[in-house]
Structure formats: C-alpha cells, structure tokens
Automatic annotation (TrEMBL):
PROSITE patterns registered for this protein in UniProt: ABC_TRANSPORTER_1 (PS00211), ABC_TRANSPORTER_2 (PS50893)
SMART domains documented for this protein: AAA
The protein's name in its UniProt record: ABC transporter ATP-binding protein
GO molecular function: ATP binding; ATP hydrolysis activity
Amino acid sequence: MILEIENISFSYTPAKSIFKGVSFTLSPGEVISIVGPSGTGKSTLLKCIAGLIQLESGKVLFEGEEIPEAKNMLIAGHQEIALVNQLFKLNDYFTVKENISNQLHHLTIEDRADFIKELLEIFELEELSSVKSKDISGGEQQRLSMACALAKEPKCLLLDEPFVHLDVHLNKKIGEYIRKLAKLRNMGVILVTHNGVEALSWSDRILVMRNGKLTSKYSPRQAYFKPKSLFEGRFFGELNSIYINEKQVLFRPMEYSLEFSEGKHKLEVEWKYSNFKGPYSANYFELNNGKEIVLYANQELTMTKEIYV
Ligand SMILES: Nc1ncnc2c1ncn2[C@@H]1O[C@H](COP(=O)(O)OP(=O)(O)OP(=O)(O)O)[C@@H](O)[C@H]1O
C-alpha cells in the first residue's frame, strides 16, 4: 500500500471536530476521489494526510511507516507526498520553466529537458515558459503548480480541486495525463472535488465525505447507478426520486422506457420544458403529485404522456 489511513480525527479547536474516525487505503497506481459538500473537511483531510497539520488521533502510514507528526518536524510534510492546493508555493521570481526545472534535480540533464517539454505541452504553458510565475493568471498558476508537483515524481499526489479553473479540453487532457502517469509510475493519487462528475471520469474509487465522516465507498459505476441516497447520488449527476408503493425509487434520467415492459411501473407525466445539452436534451416533466423529474433523450419529448421505470 502507498497509504494506510487508520481511524484519523482532527479538530482546529477543541470545541469543533472537523472529521472523525476516517480510514481508507491507497494502492500504487490507484486514483481515489473524495467527494462531498463544501466545508465538510476534505481539504483539511488532505493536509493531514500530507503530514502538514497535526492529527488529533489515528495514524497515516506511508509504505508501511508512520508519517512523522507535524509537531515534531522542523519542516512539516513528507518528501514523497506532494499536495497541490491553493497555497501551493511557486517561486514568484522564477519563470514558469525554472519553477518546473527546480523540481527535477533527481533526473539527468537530458531527461530533464524532455520532461520539462512534456509538462509544458500537457499543461499548455509553452508560450509562458519564460514568464515569471507572479505574472501569469490564477488558472495558469494552478496548472503550473500541478506541473511542478508531477515534476517531483512523488509516490503520492494529493490534488485539492485541481480542475476548478480548467476548461473542458484541458480538464480531459490533464485528467488523462495524471491517470496515465499514476499507472505508469505506480503513483497513488487522491483527488478532492465537490464535482462528482469529474470523480466518475478519473477515479478507480470514490469516497463520499459528509459532516466529517466517510459515509460511502463506491466504484464510479456504483456511485452513478447505485447511490445509497438521493443526497449522495446527486453529486454525480441529475437523479430522480419517486415513491412506488411507499418505497423510494431512485433512477437516472436515462433509466426509463417509453414502451410498456414487464415488471416496470407506469408513470403519468406532463412535459414542462426541455434544455438542449448538445448530445441530448434534458426533458423536465411534472408528475401527478406535482414533483419534477428529468428524462434524457435525443429529442424533445413534448408529446410524451407516460413512461415506464
Ligand atoms: N485554519 C482553520 N482554522 C479553523 N477552522 C478552519 C480552518 N480551515 C478550515 N476550517 C474550517 O474547517 C471546516 C472544513 O474546512 P475544509 O476546507 O477542510 O472543507 P472542504 O470540505 O474542503 O470545503 P470546500 O469544498 O468548501 O473547500 C470548515 O468549517 C472550515 O471553516
């Protein structure tokens, strides 16, 4: 295992616990996402795992060895664990390229040049390579921070909301690159995000955090199709909730049929409006009880009066 997180708890002040009894493991090459609402303690959890702040109780083991307590370290943190968050320290007066090359002392001169070129290309920073890092935008600094963290070739990479400033194209390119590097180098990655849809694309496993506790551990497919609750399921995309025989039934907007089929339940619906989403239309309907549901189709379902789920 790269990481074994055993029953860890943390609070900034004695009066308020931030998280309690958190346990999970991270394998070499694995990408885990931690998803949850704002303020639930995800960023704090990453800082604890990186050894930057002092745990209240529990242990974090890196390759079987306990990470030294932050309070006993002159410089807190672990050499092999890189954390990229809003506070990532770039060197303001060095250029973009120098910031990356400063992380590459473990490589030969030739390998350094190749790796710098690759990182500048992947993170689309080539044209800024000679610009001082203080003179680039917030989003560009975020990309540079990720490039610097990858340049270090850590065994464990912790990313706090890495895709916030990225457009769809960069999101895909960087997400794929990080996944590829994780598998290639056996690097473990933990990604914190409030956007569950990103987590579905890039993770091997997804952990849901709520009120300072890990409430669920899912595969991406389970998180999408078999969420334990409406609350958790909605992180991963639109989700319908209806009651059939007083039992709650959750279903995704494509899990329905327009024709009768054995064992399915008929719902009478009234079309309200449709939103064009590019590859599909999201059709919003009202049920007899006034509740709204959404159904995806490759057209507007304006004439639809009944569906089967
Ligand atoms: N340095 C600090 N001192 C005291 N409380 C803090 C400190 N940093 C964060 N908190 C509090 O700890 C709680 C968890 O914060 P944290 O940033 O870990 O949550 P989060 O799940 O990452 O939120 P978000 O998704 O909004 O970034 C919040 O209530 C926050 O206000």
